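ingest -> validate -> predict -> emit
validate: passed (alphabet ok, no gaps, 380 aa)
predict: started
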Amino acid sequence: MSTYFDHDATTPIDDHVLQAMMPYLRDQYGNASSRHDSGTRARRAVNMAREQVAALVSVQPAQVVFVSGGTEANNMFVKGIAAYLKPSQIAISAIEHPCVMKPAASLARTGWKVRKLNVDANGTVNLEDVEHAVSAPTGMVSVMLANNETGVLQPVAQVAEYARTARAWMHTDAVQCAGKVPVDFEALGVHAMTLSAHKMYGPKGAGALVVHKRLPIKPLIDGGGHEGGLRSGTENVPAIVGFGAACELAGSRMATLSDHTAALRAAVERGLAECGATIFGSRAPRIPNTTYFAFKNIDGESLVIELNKCGFAMASGAACSSTSTEPSATLLAMGVDPDLARGAVRLSFGADNTLQQVEEFLIAVANVVGRLSRLAAVAV
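emit:
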């Protein structure tokens, strides 16, 4: 079995989470909208999960709107807010996930202007550019809390101050951050936040948009009025229960897990640097489990394939764009040379990874990079 170093793409379901879900996959199968006992038990389970999710980011349970995942939550914010505003400007960072970039781009066809906020060479949003951007009429601002490729933490609280001064609605995609470092909705000063269960040892197919109580948002899905009228559709009770259990687990072990993965990252980055790798965003604050690196004249996809043959699973870029041969848009925004950017590989640790696995990985990297470098030299 491969050593799994791709936890930013998805995590395994923790046994504690699976145990919490199992009754609702088999015996407790009631519809949470039904008024009989089985339905009531399902509703109580959903309500408990809502409390668990809310506790992780320090909000009230009523602020948590359950959806199918991060992509839906991000689309809900962008499109749902735009439906209540006159077209103006939406400001997003140049390193946002496609599920923010693409709905924002769709607004451009309806009279909105999309303003991409610059980042520096470390991959951090430039606050001076934010201030300049929102000097123009701005309806929405969206800046992710941690980049999904570099892991670099963004100055969301400071961006939110500028957004609020401009009377713009402020959103952050916290999918890669929640469960790895403390996240406080109110302290960040945002109006909406995106979360996803499968990034924190929960099931796929469950996420949330956490909303400010005054946020005007039009539902993407109309129907029976579930989730306070914001997201109709029969609740996926097992997945929601798993999401809640994952949030509770994350809160209880965050400090320990952070220290563990940070130690593994420090070890792997020392070894990668000795092999000649460039490590992106290493001078900026990052989530503790993630490293993004490249070797000169080594194609990232080829490196991933060869390391996979050696028994190591990781990603060339983000999971959502790993089939693309184009250089990472995030790295290009950071000013990285396109040829080096094509070599980018993301490695992300999890709870079950060990220092021995890191040591074995570094041996494999040295061998594979040496072989690929020789092949490249022959080709020239």
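The first strand starts at residue 3 and ends at 4.
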